Amino acid sequence: MPPRRLLPSLVALALALAALLALACGDDEDEPAGTDGMMDAATTATRTATGSPTAAAAAYPLTLKDMLGKDVTIPAAPRRIVATSPSAIEILYAAGGKSVARTSTARVPAEVASLPDIGRAEQLSFEQIVAQRPDLVLADASLQAQVAPQLTATLGNVPVVFVGATKYDDVAAALRLVGRITGTPAVAEAAAKKMDDAKAAAKQAAAGKTAPKALMIIGATNDPYAALPESFVGDLLGLAGGTNIAAGLPANAPFPGYTKLAVERAASSAADIVLTVTLGRPGGPTLADAVKGDAAYAVLPAVKQGRVHNLDVEVYLQSPSPRAADGLASLTKLLFPQ
Amino acid sequence: MAIAALRRRPPPAATIPLAALALLLAMTLAVALGSVRLGPVTVLDGLLDRGDPAARLIVWQLRLPRVLVAACVGANLALAGVLLQGITRNPLADPHVLGFSSGAGVAAIAMLLLAPGTPLAFVAPAAFAGSLASAAAVYALAWRGGISAVRFALAGVAVAAFGTALSTAVIASSDLFTQSALSFLAGGLFARDWGHVHQLWPYTLVAGGAALLTARWLNVFALGDDIARGFGVRVERARLALLALAALLTGSAVAVSGLLAFVGLVVPHAARLLAGNDHRTLLPLAALLGAALLVLADTFARVAFAPSEIPVGIVTAVIGAPAFLALLRTRA
User: How distant is the Cα of B146 from the closest Cα of chain A, in angstroms?
Assistant: First the structure.
């Protein structure tokens, strides 16, 4: 056993690791070295913080029940809110508030692009959240319920409010809740009413018409799942007046609300319309393309009549938000073309 | 085994303080680095629980507990690896390969999914029970009037596969918290806090301490069962005790970190190459190296793609697989 070969390789390994670490740290080298970049940035941000001007001053301290069913007390009007998912960010802005940070993939509204990045919503950097010195954190009830204890414990006295939507109506409820927090209930109510109106309009459009049988599949092109009525997108399908052919099947996908549908079952479903939501590279092949090119699906009336459509992945799956009102309207048009 | 080579190797006793120093350096680095850049003075202030509150929170509530969890998990898995390799006289043995981890994983996942909201303190005992059940199954399957290294390893592989399948079945049949269960399978230390530290350190202290005391047994085991009996060791009883200890170390680590591959396999070999086969040196050295390795790997997992993280299980596998191959070539 000649360690003369081992020692250099161990040293090399250590050096490689150190180099990788150095490289990784070098990524955010936009701060002047030697100074505490975070401290400067945060102080500047505090000075320029744009808390929503509370015209109709809500009564603080404000105690409310968040969407995980937890009572949260907000001592004073929040001026530095950190929203921790694309969905939470969209809801916050639509309710009249602003976030001082964004998650990596958040793109709506466009102004959040310039905010500091706190990581992906599924794996937040708690450090970055703390560094933003929030006085309120708006977390995601569906994506972040599992880390709720840690997040709440980490933030100590800072209130953490969980909002999220697994159903269409949850978006309006979240808007109204957030409007109370930000002291902009009128803005929030208007946005929530738009959601309710879109729902009523969809109901009216479908009234008296035969509900088309819809197959709704989501996922990567090589690993699709059918959406159940319990999922967000499945709920939208129901509100738009479609009959979900996967209804009643067991929720056996690795995430709630979806089922692994056997291809033969899908192919024999006589679906009038196929709607897909594709997880994958933007601009890449969609599930709709895969369905159109798959011989097994060729027998479906939907394929024969060219009624196979791919839906926006953010609106219908990744970021349940006020945009779902327009999403519902688009869905109605696809289901009832005339 | 050239004499020149022996001369170049640091004396075995010296490797322990060196490894302790390496662990200390690794922990210092881990506390200093994160997705938020903090200057050394700020970090020091944070450690002393003074100065800027945000920095204090980051250092004291986010980084330090995670570093300690990583150190304890690494030490536990490395010790379990040394014990299992010693008991089975099989260099390929480790808690992952022999199914100890997957047994612990089934129990922990079942607990997470079927009784969500269970206090943390109950997860480690459950995982220990699962790990112990795997150990018993492996032992029973391998027993034929004695234990052969090959039969033990084969039985372990079978139990590991069975346990993994069972975990997947539990996850697939439940639609609750599946994301956390899936990340559990990959192994990770995301959002581990002081609660996890408190859950884990007693196991590392007691079971790890007990493991260090078994060095003489393991040294005698290395000579074969018959010689061990000649030394007056009750072979089967000692083996069962060591297996239970390995299960305890594995179960407590898995309860906190999920299924981390390769740490229990690679670290004992690295320690053996540095300090030889005397378990009196090997056990403490492996514990220190395991802790240092996982602390470094977790730092990389936190920092490499900041502000997002990758599961540390991926890092240990990416480092572990080539390191393992390099070690095998060095030994040949």
Answer: 31
- Angstrom distance (rounded) from CA A196 to CA A185: 16
Q: What tens digit of pLDDT does each residue of B24-73 get?
A: 999 999 999 988 888 888 888 888 878 788 888 888 888 999 999 999 99
∠ CA(B98), CA(B103), CA(B108), 5° rounding? 145
- Count how many Cα atoms sit within 13 Å of the Cα of residue A59 in the half-sphere of its side chain: 2
Residues A3, B62: C-beta atoms closer than 8 Å = no
Nearest CA in chain B to A120: B308
Residues facing residue A136 across a β-bridge: A81
Residues A73 and A190 in one domain: yes
B193–A4 C-beta distance less than 8 A: no
Domain CATH number, residue A126? 3.40.50.1980
Q: Cβ contacts (< 8 Å) between B300 and chain A: which residues?
A: 17, 20-21, 24
pLDDT tens across B149-205, in order? 788 889 999 999 999 899 888 877 765 545 666 677 778 888 888 888 999 999 999
Last residue in a domain, options A197, A222, A238 = A197
Residues A138, A247: one domain? no
- Strand duo A273-278 + A213-220: pairing: parallel
List A residues 127-146 in contact with B (Cβ-Cβ < 8 A): 127-128, 130-131, 133, 145-146
| Chain B environment of A24 (Cβ under 8 Å) | 300, 303-306
**Strand-pair category, A123-124 with A71-74:** unpaired
Taken in order B113, B178, B101, B310, the sign of the CA dihedral is negative
Whether residue B317 contacts residue B263, with contact meaning beta carbons closer than 8 Å, is answered with no
The residue range of the domain holding B224 is: 68-331
For residue A188, give its domain range.
62-197
CA dihedral over A93, A98, A103, A104, signed as positive or negative = positive
Residue at which a domain ends, from A197, A218, A236? A197
C-alpha of A323 from chain center: 11
Counted domains in chain A: 2
Peptide bond into B307 cis (omega under 30): yes
Closest CA of chain B from A210, distance in Å: 33
